[in-house]
Specification:
The chain has 8 helices and 10 strands. With 253 residues, the protein is α/β, with parallel strands linked by helices. Strand 6, helix 5 and strand 7 form a beta-alpha-beta unit.
């Protein structure tokens, strides 16, 4: 494989969700720049590569984006095959498009490799289908954290009729709740809050839009987590189990 940069999605955490194309890129890599949220178990596919941590986490000390750009450019100009390994999918809140544009402007050969995004994997692990015939005809992926602190069109989201999957929303639960309620979304709209999607220690909390802030606090919800907001969040085995447990408590009390 000639010198180039691969922008590779490592998926949400479960190493078995890595694609065959991602494995091929890792096997040929000379240098791997790895994000914090990537499960290091996937590094078994690149035992001879130099691995450099370039983590970016909300609320934590992060590697500057400009430094990551320079690192990729430096190594590819040395004739190396570089893999920029990202959690989830590089083009879903992963800066993949931004990095690809920057490199291509400098004449670098770039290829993007999709990964399974956390919103999809986390929901599936909970038995939630993000689209469901007769229930939800679409999905909207949004991030609660923006670089310029701009505000989303919450009214449009509230009235879209699609399942909302919110990334990076744990610290902004009060804002999300209030804005969706103000936008006209029903207070009893089902919500699933899913932490550490696809990993063995994945946890979930089922709630409603009105109660999610209180329930998240009681659950001690922590990042990384995604929110699934919509009627589909009432479906799945976990939701059924929770309903049965609540019914049992009512009967016992």
């Amino acid at each position: 494989m000639s010198a180039k940069v691969w922008l590779v999605g490592a998926g949400p955490g479960d190493p078995e969700l890595l694609t065959l194309k991602a494995v091929r890129a890792l096997r040929e890599a000379d240098v791997v720049l790895i994000d914090d949220l990537v499960n290091t178990a996937v590094l078994e596919h690149c035992p001879n590569a130099r691995v450099i941590a370039v983590g970016k986490r909300g609320g934590c000390r992060s590697t500057p984006q400009a430094f990551i750009h320079r690192l990729m450019l430096r190594y590819v100009r040395q004739g190396k095959c570089v893999v920029r390994l990202k959690g989830g999918d590089p083009c879903i809140f992963g800066r993949g498009g931004e990095e690809a544009d920057w490199l291509r402007e400098r004449g670098v050969d770039v290829e993007l490799v999709n990964g399974i995004t956390a919103g999809l994997a986390g929901a599936t692990q909970c038995g939630i289908s993000l689209t469901l015939r007769g229930i939800s005809r679409g999905v909207t992926l949004v991030t609660a954290h923006t670089q310029d602190d701009s505000t989303l069109n919450w009214q449009a989201l509230a009235q879209s009729g699609t399942t909302l999957v919110v990334y990076m929303g744990v610290a902004k639960l009060p804002e999300i709740r209030e804005n969706l309620l103000a936008g006209g979304m029903s207070a009893d709209m089902p919500v699933a809050m899913i932490e550490n999607a696809s990993l063995p220690w994945q946890r979930e909390c089922r709630s409603t839009l009105a109660s999610m802030q209180r329930d998240a606090a009681a659950f001690e919800l922590k990042s990384p987590a995604i929110l699934v907001i919509g009627a589909v969040a009432a479906y799945g085995q976990a939701a059924l189990d929770q309903t049965l447990q609540e019914s049992a408590r009512v009967q016992a009390g």
